[in-house]
Amino acid sequence: MIDRQQITIVTDSSLLDHDTGGGEHPEVPRRLEVIMEQLNAGPLSSGIQRTHPDPATRKQLTAFHTEAWLFRFEEAVLSGKTYIDHTDNQIGYSSFETAMLSAGTGITGINLLENSEAADVFCLTRPPGHHAEPNMPFGFCFFNNCVIAARHWQSLGRQRICVFDFDAHHGNGIQTAFEKEADSLYISIHEHPSFSYPGTGWAEEHGQGEGAGTIVNLPVNPGTSDDQVLGLLDGPVLDSLEQFEPEAIVVAAGFDGHIADDMSGLAYSTGVYREFAQRIKAWEQRFCPGRLLSILEGGYELTALAESVEAYLDGLSG
Ligand SMILES: [Zn+2]
Question: Which domains does the chain possess?
Answer without folding.
Answer: 7-317 (3.40.800.20)
